[in-house]
Amino acid sequence: MPLVYPVSISTTEMHTGGEPLRIIEKGYPEIKGRTLLDKMNYLKSDLDEYRKLLMWEPRGHYDMYGALVVPSDIKTCDFASIFIHNEGYSTMCGHAVIALGRYAIEKGLVKNVTVPETQINIQCPCGPVAAYVTYDGRNTGAVRFQSVPCFVFKPDLSVDVPGHGKITVDIVYAGAFYAILSAGQYGLDVRNSRVSELRAAAGATTDILRGQLLLEHPETEGVSFLYGTILTDGNDGHSDEITDTMCVYAERAVDRSPCGSGTSARIALQYYKNKIKLGQPRTFRGPSGEVFTAKVAKEVSCGNHKAVVTEVKGQGYFCGNSTFTLEESDAVGRGFLLK
Questions:
Q1: d(Cα 6, Cα 328) in Å, to the nearest integer?
Q2: 337 falls within a domain
Q3: Do residues 107 and 161 share a domain?
Q4: Same domain, 76 and 187
Q5: In this predicted structure, what is the pLDDT of residue 240?
Q6: How many CA atoms lie within 13 A of 40 on its CB side?
Q7: Distance in angstroms (rounded) separating the CA atoms of residues 305 and 152
Q8: pLDDT tens digit at each of 339 positions of the chain
Q9: Annotated catalytic, 93?
Q10: Which of 77, 93, 124, 126 is an active site residue?
Q11: Which of 22, 147, 150, 200 has the most CB atoms at less than 10 Å from its CB?
């Protein structure tokens, strides 16, 4: 479906750990579909021009991120969210869940608001996620969320990446599938190397793995693809130290925060490799310098996989409000990307 004029879309702008979240409120056409997966597929097939309008330049940028709040088809959930970015649609987004927790209370999306913490159940494409929003009766604060079951799909996988040689990655599911490795395997430093070098190395790894690796989730439809590559400082065994991380996802977008689902993947992997104990917290720092804390909350199962539920905590902030328009004669204004 082409864009329907006049185009006028209203949003609330937020960020978590420096990673943007553009929450679309008004102006989208009706999103058809009985289930959340149906709605996502309808967006892809019929309304993708609206994603490009809001995520791409001149209104967005290569690393922009957004969310659409829609009704949930799960009775126990307060609402559902569809996540959008430069390439398309995400199955999970932790930084968005953290921001949406605050947004839901401040915008009145949740009826049962309690002190000192309010539970909000959000249906994400990967499944229901429980967010717990700090609330003192007037103001909202930090948000923690508990993940869908996370598991190590394939540990210590050797892969030959053009331009970088043979490396070893761990494939972990945490609402999305990630490859995880130390940036040192490329001869890079996740904290001090150029972002362009880290982006290129991680992107090349994702590209080669997408062509070689067959992924399969035992229970959830629509999630069995490699979403991105997470680069680390290799510091997995010292729980009292901050560990640096960078997630390069979708079409080589760089997450400014530690990445919520990426943090779930990392803490799940550390637990799998006996680097941490159940309930033992770690602190993860993203490219912006902001941190998330995380722990493994409990052991569960997912199909034949030994899995865990992780808990990630961070802080979302409101940045402002926008109304975006498009003149019918403005062809370039429909969206473009400079890589």
A1: 8
A2: no
A3: no
A4: no
A5: 83
A6: 24
A7: 8
A8: 789 999 999 999 999 999 999 999 999 999 999 999 999 999 999 999 999 999 999 999 999 999 999 999 999 999 999 999 999 999 999 999 999 999 999 999 998 899 999 999 999 999 999 999 999 988 899 999 999 999 999 999 999 999 999 999 999 999 999 999 999 999 999 999 999 999 999 999 999 999 999 999 999 999 999 999 999 999 998 778 999 999 999 999 999 999 999 999 999 999 999 999 999 999 999 999 999 999 999 999 999 999 999 999 999 999 999 999 999 999 999 999 998
A9: yes
A10: 93
A11: 147
Q: Which two tokens stand for residue 215?
A: 């992924």
Q: What angle do CA 126, 286, 262 make, to 5 degrees?
A: 20
CA gap 60, 24 in Å, rounded = 13
First to last CA, the chain: 26
Range of the domain at 32: 7-146+318-325
SS (H, E, C) the chain: CCCCCCEEEEEEEEEECCEEEEEEEECCCCCCCCCHHHHHHHHHHHCHHHHHHHHCECCCCCCCCEEEEECCCCCCCCEEEEEECCCCEECCCHHHHHHHHHHHHHCCCCCCCCCCEEEEEEEECCEEEEEEEEECCCCEEEEEEECCCEEEEEEEEEEEECCCEEEEEEEEECCCEEEEEEHHHHCCCCCCCCHHHHHHHHHHHHHHHHHHCCCCCCCCCCCCCEEEEEEECCCCCCCCCEEEEEEEECCCEECCCCCHHHHHHHHHHHHHCCCCCCCCCEEEECCCCCEEEEEEEEEEEECCEEEEEEEEEECEEEEEEEEEEECCCCCHHHCECCC
Query: Do 109 and 194 belong to one domain?
Result: no
Tell me what pLDDT residue 301 has: 98
Residue 243 φ then ψ, to 5° = -115, 135
CATH code, domain with 16: 3.10.310.10
- Asked if 181 and 58 sit in the same domain, the reply is no
- Work out how many domains the chain is built from and give that number: 2
